[in-house]
Write a structure and sequence with these properties.
The complex is a heterodimer.
Chain A: E1 9-15, E2 23-29, E3 38-39, E4 45-46, E5 51-58, E6 61-68, E7 77-82, E8 88-96, E9 101-108
Antiparallel strand pairs in A: 1-2, 2-7, 3-4, 5-6, 5-8, 8-9
Chain B: H1 5-20, H2 24-36, E1 43-44, E2 50-57, E3 60-66, E4 70-78, E5 84-90, E6 97-103, E7 109-116, E8 121-127
Parallel strand pairs in B: 1-8
Antiparallel strand pairs in B: 2-3, 3-6, 4-5, 4-7, 7-8
The chains are: A mainly beta, B alpha+beta.
Chain lengths: 115, 132
Amino acid sequence: MKPTQTSPIRLDLAPVKDTRGVWRVHASLRHDMEQGGRIDAQGRAVPRAIANRFLCFFNDTVLLDVSLQPGMAADPSFEFDFSPETDGVVEARWIEDDGTEHVLRRTISLGGQIG
Amino acid sequence: MKLTRRDALTLGLGATAAQFLPSRAGAATEDAILQFTNGAEPLRNPGLIRFRHLERLADVVEVEVVAPDCTTLALFVQGATQPEIARATFGPNTQQRLKTRARTNGGTGLVAVARDSSGGYVRAQVRFDDAL
């Protein structure tokens, strides 16, 4: 039996308590965020390999655009709030140095449902 | 080796001068900030930018920054050789509050610099051992 591959990306959405119309986004990526220059057990320099960009959209409108540097901790995450005016789709997109992209989309409705 | 009076005076002058030179790591942080601001010196105005949360866990720090009216926010580690952590641009429907996690990287604290909607820059800083 093949091992199950779990997604490295996570996207949590929830309405902010006591704040009408505001939603909280918590996006994270499971990633070593290798800074470069570290020496491994075999004495070799480990090259830089980080996720260097995070983009979050709501219905194709940018909510947050982040350029990440090697100073970010491993398993990077961002939490922020936004005010949607309609139901729609939140998309989180992480881009690595080698061009690999990790994308996750979730649907929200202003009634509070999350898909 | 014989230490002459002249040698002693030279050593003393060198030590005094060294006190006034910024450390290379500290200078790297200020250089990175000036690169972000295109050379402008950011204002220090706690009403425009502040740290709301700071929690250190070994060599990682969790941080939350609030900068109302800002369009872009950059975070730096004070005293690290690679000081820049991240540079975030907020969309029109996004509140200017960001929580994330950074490596301490041998630094002493964090600096947040925000670009406001009129194009000016403000900064705030906090040491890792400060209580918020």
